[in-house]
Amino acid sequence: MSIKDTLRRLLCGGETTTALTPAAESLRVPALVTNRNVGGRAAVVFVHGFHGNAVATWASFVAQVLSDRRLNGWDVYSVGYPTNLSIDLPIWTSDPDIRLCAAGLVTKLKHVPLDRYEAVALVAHSMGGLVVQRAILDSEELRQRLAHVVLYGTPSAGVSKAAVGARLKPQARDMRVGSEFIARLRTEWQERIAERPPFSFTVVAGETDAFVPASSSIAPFPLMQQAVVPGNHLEIVRPDSTHHLSYELLYKTLTRSRAACSAVESARLAVEHKQFDRAIELLMPGADGLDANAIVTLSLALESVGRKVEAMDVIERWNNAGDKRVLDPIGVLAGRLKRRWLVSRQRRDFDRALAACRT
Length: 359
What we know:
- The protein is α/β, with parallel strands linked by helices.
- The protein folds into two domains: 3-259, 3-Layer(aba) Sandwich (Rossmann fold); 266-358, no CATH class.
- 45% of the residues lie in helices and 12% in strands.
- The chain has 16 helices and seven strands.
- It has a seven-stranded mixed sheet, with helices on both faces.
- The longest helix is centred in the C-terminal third of the chain and has 16 residues, at 329-344.
- The radius of gyration is 21 Å and the shape is globular.
């Protein structure tokens, strides 16, 4: 396997954009994409992650926003910055480190066409969320203009896999757990933003994100700022409809209607924080009416407190309740426990996944 392939697997979870070489790709994908500009007063600006680009990463999300008439008042942009898997050769060229990417984002927001907007919402994925946080800390003007910030799957506490490419890529160096960049970012954010940001702020974890676990994406922030949605590192930014939870979360944020979390959202957060009894309390009364993702959350919570028979039974009852896609309870639990083990490397999760497979 080539060094580039290794970096792709370890640093971006397989995220790909096009089949072009990095040089050709950088020429083809502009640094600013205007998805909609109808002269509104507010703009939502999407920021991609490592090895993403301004077009491919957010294509699904942008399509849903543009199709949603409720958001017609928002102009929509995507911004890009240099990032690829090629080994940097500093004597000729190299990708900028994250702080320089942040400075580039601030510069774009200060110039046409983004400079005229009275309110800006920044929506970022993965490493793009680190770019956004650094930009917010570095620019008082940006903090005053921001209305909303939503970060999907951002390694705010760093990511261990980035250590592999730290010597080859400045961006990987900055992302790794324990890096100077991460340490300084967390310290300054706690001192200057913390629990009372001057804008609405939400961090989002994917339930099955093995690349950026919840311990990095949401744990560094207060519970009130956290959200959890179904999907892995890439799926959480690829909504297939306006009913997808990732999209609904953004819609409610942009319309300032994100009130108290629903029972399902609260239960997902409870499971991430190992508050399994709380998740059961929230979901069990309405188990028959849950969707597939929520019933899996309930089943996992039951299994986690030793109620293994009930964990299987709730899925079986849900399967029999109506015309729904059938779930395999054993496969569901084994799969979720395996993914948890891949993230935590706790022996008990491995043993429980293996036991579920043998049941």
